[in-house]
Design a protein that fits this description.
This protein is mainly alpha-helical and 435 residues long. The protein has 22 helices and no strands. It is a multi-pass membrane protein.
Length: 435
């Protein structure tokens, strides 16, 4: 077999192994190592490239953002800030048809800005928002669908682990990726609120719900008390990066310290809780950095096989337009989203398409936003939709099946696709803050 044929076979093998349940970094690393060995018929070369990948990939200073932002998100979650933000949002939306759903979207958008985790958002708001919506006779499918749909904001609104992973693969600035994610994340949140209003207006049976007779507006003092810590944390982290006062690593460290102080002042953080947050930070960080290391050897394998260049030549010879390239890219991500998680999609497809995008003079920061939004649609689609599985497991309610969660999330996946098309058509939306 030629190096090109081995490279193509390796990509297929990686997808198949991940789909069969093999741990993603293992599949990436082992298949890439064996492919390099076969291509060059040199075991020592494959071993040396593996050593370089392990030694160089995660030793960069910017990867300190991974444990810092992870720890900050876990502390914020344990401090109960998500429930407080939801209380404030529900005060503003409760009298509107589908208002509790809109409140969930708003709360998720704010919560995402201090956690950066779709899984954390799905877990927190499954406990906080779904029981409230069921209490007021909302359709269970709509209730879980809102939580599933809005949970993906955690991977788009910075700080986001997926943006960090992309920044490594594409060699882009983490700070620029964070800033570029703000406008698309807010766009998606506004689109979700608009979609809920449309559903409430034209499909009232799907939304359900009844007026909140026991509704009592929160005093301004309580609103400030509940919302102040979260907004302050957002200003410290994103404001520090935007103004240039803090690097992403420094912002992560500062945000972690502020989050810890907030949790202690609110008496929500015991020594046991602190230790659990540290352990979970270690587990999450290790898994992400292991992914990045495996992605490094995978990228080297693709380079040796010449697969990205071959793909670029094929499209160049066919005179493929920008529209054709992006259509193929989005369709590929939507297909892989039914099989793989977001990180796997980014690590597999980005190294293949970067050589196609760069000669077209397109912004790689914009391309990263397109990649993350497109891959995140997979969180809401069967059979792998991770957010949907988390919601089902967190609720542990026999009245709501996994099918209900997926069907409830389907309209929000459609909204994501519309926003993705707008972001592709108007790149300035992603780059507005950077210009």
């Amino acid at each position: 077999m030629s190096p090109l044929e081995i490279g193509m076979a390796s990509v297929v093998a990686i997808v198949v192994l991940i789909y069969l349940g093999m741990y993603i970094p293992i599949a990436l690393g082992v298949v890439s190592f064996v492919s390099i060995w076969l291509m060059r018929d040199n075991f020592d070369l494959a071993m040396n490239l593996l050593k370089v990948a392990v030694g160089d990939s995660v030793m960069e200073y910017t990867f300190a953002t991974v444990p810092l932002f992870t720890f900050m998100g876990l502390v914020v979650s344990k401090a109960g800030l998500g429930a407080d933000v939801y209380d404030v949002m529900s005060t503003g939306f409760r009298r509107v048809k589908g208002g509790i759903g809109m409140a969930t979207v708003g709360a998720n958008a704010v919560f995402a800005a201090v956690t950066g985790s779709s899984i954390a958002s799905a877990s927190v708001f499954s406990k906080v928002s779904v029981p409230q919506m069921l209490k007021y006779d909302y359709n269970p499918r709509f209730a879980v669908g809102v939580v599933a749909g809005s949970s993906v904001l955690g991977m788009i609104i910075p700080p986001s682990a997926m943006l960090i992973i992309y920044s490594f693969v594409a060699e882009q600035s983490v700070g620029e990726m964070f800033l570029a994610g703000v406008v698309p994340g807010l766009m998606l949140a506004v689109a979700y609120v608009a979609a809920i209003w449309v559903m409430g207006r034209f499909f009232p049976k799907f939304v359900g719900g009844r007026p909140s007779e026991d509704f009592e507006p929160l005093p301004w003092g309580d609103i400030a008390t509940k919302l102040g810590p979260t907004l302050g944390l957002i200003v410290v982290v994103l404001g520090g990066i935007y103004t240039g006062w803090l690097t992403p690593v420094e912002a992560g460290a500062t945000g972690s310290l502020v989050a810890l102080v907030i949790a202690l002042l609110r008496r929500r953080m015991s020594l046991r809780g602190f230790w659990e947050a540290l352990l979970e930070t270690g587990h999450i960080t290790a898994s992400i950095l292991f992914l990045i290391t495996a992605a490094s050897i995978y990228s080297r394998m693709l380079g040796l096989a010449g697969l990205p260049n071959e793909l670029g030549d094929m499209l160049a010879n066919s005179q493929a337009s920008f529209f054709t390239v992006m259509l193929l890219y989005v369709l590929l991500m939507l297909f892989l989203g039914t099989l793989l998680d977001t990180a796997s999609i980014i690590l597999i497809v980005v190294p293949l398409f970067l050589p196609l995008v760069e000669p077209m003079g397109l912004s790689l920061v914009w391309f990263g936003i397109i990649t993350v939004v497109g891959a995140e649609i997979g969180l809401l689609t069967p059979p792998l939709g991770i957010s949907c599985f988390v919601i089902k497991a967190t609720l542990n309610d026999d009245r709501i099946s996994l099918k209900d969660v997926f069907l409830g999330a389907l309209p929000f996946a459609g909204v994501m696709l519309i926003v993705l098309i707008l972001l592709i058509r108007y790149p300035a939306l992603s780059l507005a803050i950077l210009n």
